[in-house]
Specification:
It comes from Palleniella muris. The chain is mainly alpha-helical and 148 residues long. It has 6 helices and no strands. 80% of the residues lie in helices and 0% in strands.
């Protein structure tokens, strides 16, 4: 509820909040198969990893939605142009932030206590980054109306 309120205060419109929050369920597309394939149980540490993952993905989506909003507002781009330009201009920062986190989690995989945390974050971040860069622009174009 708190995250919903903060996002609503930040963006002021429900459609943008929905765009940001719709990317979170797709994290399970990466996490569930990875835990299953590695025979890793859904432990408390995996749930902690999921909560951290939600924050990381929310940050990535906020960066893209905010950049698209800025392009629409300042450059008077269409929503479609803004979504494309925002994605192209933010691919590198989003990818590098995700990549460094994935690589940083790799040493935790052999540890019995932290392996579920590492697998959860690594797999969820991998799939979540792809969803952010591919699905979010589409959602933005569908849910945000052109003001022109």
């Amino acid at each position: 509820m708190i995250m919903l309120g903060v996002l609503l205060l930040l963006f002021g419109k429900w459609n943008k909040v929905i765009i940001i929050l719709l990317c979170i369920p797709f994290l399970m597309v990466g996490v569930a198969p990875a835990l299953f394939l590695t025979s890793t149980p859904l432990t408390f540490m995996a749930i902690i990893g999921l909560m951290g993952l939600m924050g990381m993905m929310t940050k990535n989506t906020i960066v893209l939605v905010d950049e698209a909003d800025r392009l629409v507002r300042e450059n008077h781009c269409t929503v479609r142009q803004a979504a494309i330009e925002a994605t192209v201009s933010r691919v590198r920062p989003v990818f590098l932030a995700s990549f460094t986190t994935i690589v940083g989690m790799a040493p935790l995989i052999p540890d019995p206590m932290y392996s579920s945390l590492a697998i959860t974050i690594m797999s969820g971040l991998f799939v979540g980054t792809l969803v952010t860069l591919l699905l979010l622009p589409l959602l933005y174009v569908i849910l945000v109306k052109d003001t022109k």
